[in-house]
Amino acid sequence: MTTTLDIRAYHLRLPDTARPVLAGVDLTVDARETVALVGESGSGKSLTSRSVLGLLPHGATTGGTVEVDGEDVLTMTPDRLRRLRTSTAAMIFQDPRAAINPLRRIGDFLTESLRLNAGTGARAATDRAVEMLEAVGLSAAVLRRHPGQLSGGMLQRVMIAAALMGDPALILADEPTTALDVTTQAEVVALLGDLRERFGTGLLFVTHDLGLAAAISDRVYVMYAGRIAETGPAAALFERPRHPYTAALLNSTPRPDAPQGRLAAIEGRPPGLREDLTGCSFAARCPLATYLCSQQAPELLPVAGEPARRTACHHTDRIGTRGGADA
Amino acid sequence: MRKTVLEVLGLHRSYGGVRAVDDVSLTLAEGRSLGIVGESGSGKTTTARIIVGLERADSGRVLVHRRDRTERGRGRADRLARAREVQMVFQDPYLSLDPRMPVATVLRETLRLHFPGTDHERRIAELLDQVGLGPREAAALPRQLSGGQRQRVAIARALAVEPAVLVLDEAVAALDVSVQAQILNLLADIRAATGIGYLFITHDLGVVRCVTDEVVVMRRGRIVESGPTAEVLARPRHPYTRLLLDSVPVPGWDPRRIAAARRAL
Q1: Of A105, A151, B167, B236, which residue is 20 to 30 A from B125 by alpha carbon distance?
Q2: What span, in angstroms and rounded, lies between the C-alpha atoms of A127 and A136?
Q3: Does one domain contain both B82 and B15?
């Protein structure tokens, strides 16, 4: 199996901060694989996915490598970056209304990138647009519409069609269903699954929703304060978390089949960027934390007996099923 | 039998040819929590806004403690009295708080308006304590607070007038899961301590299960199903409620089947 995205020891630092925003991120996506990157606001999940397209914040300094199809994005020339964004990797954003120019027709939006960057002719680009609209379940009539004439769900399909225009090896989807209704979310997710099989693209799905991540992906990465806390096959990670943060996240999520009453909330909040972190970034909120945790950041290491999983916790053997800490 | 605090009877509201709210009736008893669940366009937010008084109904009545809210006049005293009946917490506290006003001032303004000539400083401290904030947050501006803290301020401001009903419109939807859990727990504690009634507007069935006793499911302006929350979620009778439940992603989820069911409905 070929690796489409390979991020290694990736560091990102912003001016006027006490700690790196991303501190040693390792993440891979293979061809035809759906990988979910889960985290709360400020965890660095969106920065990670944007880095794959070379979309870095102003003044950022980086270390490590971010390879797409074997080429490091961090050292690409502007010209090469443009070609990467046209044909190799594409992004689907959370709010299609904010990402599509409301004054231009859908047809212009879909064909613009191919015509400008790949030199494709008008006829060929339009043919491709019709093909991609059909792939996402929309008709060619949509080409002549303006964004304001389409519903949120339809517009997100247009976003997906646009992402497919350049036949990318990798699609980055940043909370693509968060702005949609729950029943529409199911439709968009079903569509992404179909397209992966049909076009063989790798998919990095960025979300705050651990349930959604577990439902749709092959593997999950859980991120906290700029580090990968835990990674592994979706079902196993959901069933038996190996990091206290994953466990706490599962326990604090209200579920329709759970009894009424208080939730096991995680007290406190994530560390700010102005605080330097010496030990584990979750230690201040962790029920299992010891002196060791405040002194030494745990490495992301394989879980005993489960080679496909890795966790960054000094006390992983003390975590019970469904997060109940066996302390 | 608990006393009825809020009664909504045959509410209608149309915009152009669209029936946004179509014959909606509901009852909320003292100290209870009622959920309104639906997707965008279901009419849940319009219903809430009519109850609060931000929107007028074409027909139908809203009664608080058996008194019709629309019968009161439009004068200052009547408006203040209406505000003391029902208060609202919005989804985004960043938009509902004045960016230039420190937290303590926000509360002081509300108290001065509704209860002139009383000891506000003690009440401010009491309200902040009730929502888990301290003196440091009292002096802060909204932008110096986190999303969860801002929502705590919005709740404290709503509680300041001691309303009979608190309407929460997607009040935890914009928060991270770990913070959302803190706020949901806080709301449960406040209800237990004060006996206030909640009308909880949300699209999230997990949240509904966690904080409501009863629920109504709305679709295209109409109530399609209602009953005790535990029962409705365990044994949904309407196909739309079932579709909403199936749409919650869990491991082994089949989005294709849901997409098909949605088209069939």
Answers
A1: B167
A2: 15
A3: yes
For residues B93 and B181, membership in a common domain is answered with yes
Same domain as A194, residue A228: no
A210 contacts on B by Cβ (under 8 Å): 177
A185 and B40 within 8 Å at the Cβ level: the answer is: no
Q: Please indicate, yes or no, if residue B173 is contained in any of the structural domains.
A: yes
Which amino acid belongs to residue B144?
Q
Q: Which two tokens stand for residue A100?
A: 């599509």
The helix or strand, by DSSP H or E, that contains position B95, with its residue range, turns out to be helix B93-96
The residue among A217, A249, A266 that closes a domain is: A217
Same domain, A160 and A305: no
Instruction: Select the residue from B177, B191, B208, B232 to test the A interface by mutation, using most A Cβ atoms within 10 A.
Output: B177
User: Which residues in chain A have Cβ-Cβ distances shorter than 8 Å to B247?
Assistant: 182-183, 185-186
Q: Looking at the domain assignment, is residue B40 inside a domain?
A: yes
A32/A104 same-domain check: yes
What domain count does chain A have? 2
- Interchain CB distance below 8 Å, A40 and B178: yes
User: If contacts are CB pairs under 8 Å, which of residues 54-93 in chain A contact chain B?
Assistant: none
Q: What is the CA radius of gyration of chain B?
A: 19
Question: What's the pLDDT score for residue A276?
Answer: 86
DSSP A319: B
The residue among A182, A203, A208 with the most chain B CBs within 10 A of its CB, best to mutate, is A182
Q: Is residue B108 part of a domain?
A: no
User: Does residue B228 sit in the same domain as residue B250?
Assistant: no
Do the beta carbons of residue A326 and residue A243 sit within 8 Å? Answer: no
Cβ pair B249:A214 closer than 8 A: yes
Provide the domain limits for residue A305: 223-323
Task: Mark residue A59 as left, alpha or beta (left: phi above 0; alpha: psi -120 to 50; beta: remaining).
Answer: left
Q: Looking at the structure, do residues B260 and B177 belong to the same domain, yes or no?
A: no
CA atoms within 13 A on the CB side of B241: 24
Q: Are residue B170 and residue B265 in the same domain, yes or no?
A: no
How many Å apart are CA B103 and CA A287, to the nearest integer? 31
Which tokens in the block code for residue A234?
């979706």
CA-to-CA dists, residue A75 to A20, A51, A54, A72, angstroms:
20, 12, 9, 6
Q: Is residue A209 located within the same domain as residue A229? A: no
Cβ of A253 and B40 within 8 Å?
no
A189 and A271 in one domain? no
Domain span holding position B263: 236-265
Pairwise CA distance, residues A304 & A232, whole Å: 13
Nearest to A64 by CA among A187, A228, A193, A260: A228
Q: Which ipTM was obtained for this model? A: 0.84
- Same structural domain for residues A140 and A283? no
Q: What is the CATH number of the domain that holds B68?
A: 3.40.50.300
Provide the whole-model pTM: 0.89
Binned at pLDDT 50, 70 and 90, residue A286 comes out as very high
Token pair, residue B33, equals 């929590």
pLDDT per residue over B158-178, tens digit each?
999 999 999 999 999 888 888
- CB-based contact A321:A239 (threshold 8 Å): yes
